[in-house]
Amino acid sequence: MSKKDQKSAREGWFTLDANNPRLLGSQCDECQTYYFPVHEKYCRNPQCESESFTQIELSNRGKIWSYTNAGYAPPPPFVADDPYEVFALAAVELDKEKLVVLGQLVKGVGVDDVSIGDEVELAIETLYEDEESEYLVWKWKPVNSSKSSNTESQASSQGGAA
Amino acid sequence: MSNSVAILGVGMHPWGKWGNNFVDYGVKAARDALKDAGVAWQDIQFVAGANTMRCGYPGYVAGATFAKALGWNGARVASCYAACASGAQALNTARAQILSGMADVALVVGADTTPKGFLAPQGGDRPDDPDWLRFRLFGATNPAYFAMHARRRIELYGTTEHDIAEVRVKNGDNGLHNPNARYKKTFSIDEVLASPMVADPLRLFEICATSDGGAAIVIASEEYAKKLHAKPVTIEAISTITPTYPSTQLELPDLATDSAAAVSVPTMNFKPAMIDAAYKEAGIGADDISLAEVYDLSTAMELDWYEALQLCPEGEGQKLLRDRDTYIGGRVPVNPSGGLACFGEAVPAQALAQVCELTWQLRGQADKRQVENARYGITANEGLFGHGSSVIVKAAE
Question: What is the DSSP code string of A79-125?
Answer without folding.
Answer: ---SS---EEEEEEEETTTTEEEEEEEPTT--GGG--TT-EEEEEEE
